[in-house]
Amino acid sequence: MLDTSIPAVQARRPELQWVGSGAWVACDPSLAATDPHRVVAYLECKDDRVYLLWVTGAAGVCEFGSIGEAIDQITARLAPLPR
Fold this sequence. Notes:
The protein is α+β, with helices and mostly antiparallel strands and 83 residues long. It contains one helix and five strands. The protein has one domain.
């Protein structure tokens, strides 16, 4: 029997680089370290909230209750577009 299933799309989780004082830069792991588009967001933990500032794509600031929720949002943006 011929297998015609479509493989699941592998989500790209961001790489986090600590920049100090409860702050991280989220990077796209599929891009080279020298690529200026590698940085996709800045995250800061403050007052029991996580603030995410997008630096690529649609700009803006989002607020989350946990770092996990913020990372999930970044992962969703890094997901490849369906073909």
